Amino acid sequence: MENWYRHVKTDFGVQLSDQQLEQFDLYLRELQDWSQKFNLTAIVEPEGIRVKHFLDSLSVVKAFPQGFVPQSMIDIGTGAGFPGIPLKIIFPDARLTLVESVKKKAGFCEHITEMLGLRDVLVSSARAEEVGQDPAHREQYGLVLARAVASMPILVEYLLPLANVGGLVVMQKGSSAHREAEASRNAVRLLGGKLDEIIPVELPGVEDERYLVVLEKIKATRAEFPRRVGVPAKAPIQN
């Protein structure tokens, strides 16, 4: 898509500098190159990468309250760095942690953040449950992110323990967003969160429904959450 970055400004209110555009171009080339060797992403055409990875990642800014600038971000199940790295490109001063248990994908994240010259980025291959119980990460982030990781009753147990009180959790979801949000009402409450809003997202040329499910962290998460590795997926918190 020609001038994809125009949508970044018109749809999301973000102006990209020449340096940031160069970073996105380098990111695209490296993603294509690595995807020939490893299964990083099924989307390898330039237009698909720009729209379904870059624009989709940057759509997270639609969830930000007016004047909100993230100081600390963590992206759970980031894969090849989405949405965390595109957001880091436009918020270069924010501290970023990328969590990806697949070592080859984590290796790509380390490689590309170095290639892009991004500072203050940590890549972890730990499981989300372990990260959530680690004092270095627990309730240390103002913005907690996830895209296509798990259903919401499971996902909120991974994410809410990482947000500081007053912080945001943003989950990128498809057509099931409203149903999943309803199914996770009790989990959100138990973990100290509150459903803020569900925001529709439109991407050029993409018909699939997309939503941002936004939670606010309103109180500290109880110490027993997240439960040990594997338990949230096997026994999600029920309504």
CATH architecture: 3-Layer(aba) Sandwich
Structure summary, number of beta strands: 7
Between the first and last Cα atoms, what is the distance in angstroms?
43 Å
> Approximately how much helix is present in the residues?
25-40%
- The helix count comes to 10
Task: Output the CATH topology.
Answer: Rossmann fold
What would you call the shape? globular
Radius of gyration: 17 Å
CATH class: Alpha Beta
Which secondary-structure class do the elements indicate?
alpha/beta
Low-pLDDT segments: none
* SSE sequence, one letter per element: HHHEHEHEHEHEHHEEH
The CATH H-level superfamily is Vaccinia Virus protein VP39
Strand order of the largest sheet: 3-2-1-4-5-7-6
For the sheet with most strands, the description reads:
7 strands, mixed
Number of domains: 1
Percentage of β-strand residues = 15-25%
Average pLDDT number: 95
